[in-house]
Amino acid sequence: MKRLKIKNLIILLVILILLHLVVGFIASPALTSLAVKTINEKTAAKISLEKMHLWPLTLTIELKNLKVFDPDQPQIRIVAINNMKASLSFFGLLSRRIMFNGVSIDSLEINTQGSPDGTFNIEKIGRKESTPEKKQTSDLGNILREKKDWFSKLYEIIKQRFSKKQLAKAKVERKDAAKTVTEVIKIPHGRRVIFRPLTGEYLFGIKKLRISDANIIVSLDDGNTVAITEAHILLNKLFFDSQNNLRLERCRLSGKISANQRLAGTIELDYLTKLNQDTVQTQYLLNAEDVDLDAIRFVYRDSLPVNIEKGTLQLESKTILTDDALDSKNNLTLANHKFSVQETGTVADMFMPLPILCETLNDITPLTLQFAITGTLEKPEFKGFQEALAQLTKPALKTIQKRIEKQGMDILRKVIEKNIKSPSSEDGSAPTNDTTAQKAIDAINAIFGTKEEKK
Asked: What pTM does this model have?
């Protein structure tokens, strides 16, 4: 009897191994052709796949040379994956959900192109029908269509994501997700009771996604191109629920920055979010090294009151958002830089005329600043920024005075209006350029403190 059991066990094991190999090496090619044909016919996505292996015993899937093309222009390739390996969750399959314990991708290339309406061709892949959809106006679409730099657009998107309205909506959804409903299924010998979440049940998810050697290229409609190359990406707990909402717990990215096919530095980003019923806390850690500010000018050009004609940036930034409350600490260093005043745009309310400040900062290299940003996303408050600039420029006070005296009334008018109560002198006569310049110098001295006061 014991020998019979061992024999049956060996036979069963041999059958399972044969099934594993047959499905992996023989059935998989046929399934590959069927899967590609079905996806191309039933969805907007147009794909090609060289090879796919399904391994039933280990619940793993291996793909080779997967390519995704623009549905409207099939000659344009949007996504290319050299090798991908995914491990399915056994318990996820039991609960009728597609859940992956882990996915690893070797050599990923994403090449997406922007349109004047603010959309990107990669968005077409998710269309439910193969025919082009009618364009619909959305808040995100409106932001992307605005004639702003990409820093401003990203800031607007984050503000919208963490607005009081969106936070209140997300809070209600989290409370509803915690509730459960019962589903009773009749079976031949009784009933089966299933407890399901009221909302927010995840239908598709990846617990851990690793991507090595990734190249993400974004071609903008204005002709500029920005890319992250030789990147390594790690995503934790990426889930989609029944309402097609996306949840991502963590994202870590590191790679090289290039702009218009020109190397522009390196970047490391770490994103982490924590949810509970009352608050959402999001943390951003950003490190940038040797960033060529001229090469990426189109990213920030509308967000600053000055032009940065050249310079390299080193940046360390840690930002924590608790709902919409800001707590950001920043340390930046500029080298080989040159500032100039923009001909148009809003003039910053600084402690000295902007042209003179630019000239003074151009003489300081490297330029290191440490400052914090608090308040809310809607009304951020900079702490220590102007004080740091004042300390940097303090050693050049004599040079600043000479520059102020030389440029006179025309440049100083906006500064001295806050320091002079009346445009007339005590005897009723209008002030001269010399007296106006001296009053502005006295105002700046009050900020810095004079040597006599120190003594």
From this structure: 0.73
